[in-house]
Amino acid sequence: GRAETEAARAFGLEAMLARRARGLSEGEKRRLELARLRMRRPRLLLLDEPLAGLDADYRAVLLGWLRAHAANGGSALWCDHDEAAVRAASVRVTRLGAPREQSDAT
Prior knowledge:
- The chain is α+β, with helices and mostly antiparallel strands.
- The chain is 44% helix and 15% strand.
- The protein is built from four helices and four strands; from the N terminus they run ααβαβαββ.
- The strands form two sheets. The protein has a two-stranded parallel sheet. Strands 3-4 form a two-stranded antiparallel sheet.
- Strand 1, helix 3 (56-71) and strand 2 form a beta-alpha-beta unit.
- Helix 1 crosses helix 2 (26-40).
- The longest helix has 16 residues, at 56-71.
């Protein structure tokens, strides 16, 4: 369908649609997971290190999609060690850690 084609195109998977997931590289599997998530169009995203395994081009694709998701009223809970990437794609960031390290920034 249309959603599948758009998601596959966004994450560079069009040429791999006929392949089985077990034959994909780890990076391709990660992109497949993200494309499947995008097809479902959830209002709330729960993301655990979503940039892991992605090269710079697909990191940019994901960050652009997350910004568009937020602009269209969606939300995301994103756990990651890459605070700079989280801040680049976020409207509001809450950093959790020891009580003296907690912060809330917009």
